[in-house]
Amino acid sequence: MGLKIYINGQILPEEDAKISVFDHGLLYGDGIFEGIRAYNGKIFTLQQHLDRLYDSANAISLKIPITKSEMADAIKKTMDANNMKDSYIRLVVTRGVGKLGLDPNKCSNPQIIIITDTIELYSKALYERGLDIVTVTTIRNHFSALDPKIKSLNYLNNILAKIESIHAGAGEALMLNKDGYVAECAGDNIFIFKNDTLLTPPPSAGILIGITRNVVMKLATQIGIQVKEELMTKCDLYAAEECFLTGTAAEIIPVVKIDGRIIGDGKPGKVTLDLLKKYRELTMKGF
Ligand code: PMP
């Protein structure tokens, strides 16, 4: 049986869930989105995702026609229609249908789309073995061009990076910013552990401020690990004792090789695995 999709207040069978070819989301990548997880019927960090969605909308001068609480209800309604307890929720708001030409004022109504599906970014074996990642030549968008804080439908920057990592036979693409500092991976934030401290690039490095990143920083503090946001270079990563990536879909995935350099002893580190365990406990409990 196909999925039921929410579009602008209606729940439709997948085959009837259609958007116009004149939607500026398709024509120009003019829109925003969120990826959210539900565990055991509970939507994890929903408020944080809604806040980020509405902040992204504000940044691109897009007025979402419903309130955050109406959006939360719409998500729950879509989950119920699909009878799903564990799902990956894709929330999309496009600029809407308009004439050809960039002017967003020529668009009628923003389109709200909610898909509740499942996602598997990395295999179970990779969580046990750890990822091999490479630095790519595509730099992360400079914030003056397109701020990575905006989770926009314009993801080509990340896709170009991902293509490079695929061509290199690696599991993920590490992106630097224009000054050569580590920003993030194509679809995940990055952390290293060294000298009893957990380090991650600060927002000023030009990153999407990941919600999983924020949860992991809190969890680490709770278990007595010092956490710092610090600019770092590739070499800082090579010298790390542990490294992992965070994201809603990926959760916490260990990294064991970067640009051919073995990280730590080449196996997922203890702190990484402790944090993954804590993270999974939290997702089961609700947040
Ligand atoms: N960075 C980028 C570029 C992303 O697309 C994502 C989400 N897939 C993340 C980081 C992680 O963000 P979150 O933890 O909120 O899913």
Main attributes of the structure:
8 helices; binds 4'-deoxy-4'-aminopyridoxal-5'-phosphate; 287 residues; alpha+beta; nine-stranded mixed β-sheet; single chain; D-amino Acid Aminotransferase, Chain A, domain 2; six-stranded antiparallel β-sheet
In words, what does this structure look like?
The chain is 29% helix and 27% strand. The radius of gyration is 19 Å and the shape is globular. The longest helix is centred in the last third of the chain and has 16 residues. The protein folds into two domains: 114 residues, Aminotransferase class 4, branched-chain amino acid transferase, N-terminal domain (D-amino Acid Aminotransferase, Chain A, domain 1, 2-Layer Sandwich), CATH 3.30.470.10; 161 residues, D-amino Acid Aminotransferase, Chain A, domain 2 (Alpha-Beta Barrel). It is an alpha+beta fold and 287 residues long. A hairpin with a 2-residue loop joins β14 and β15. The model has no long low-confidence stretch (mean pLDDT 97). It has eight helices and 15 strands. The chain binds 4'-deoxy-4'-aminopyridoxal-5'-phosphate. 4'-deoxy-4'-aminopyridoxal-5'-phosphate (PMP) binds next to α6 and β13.
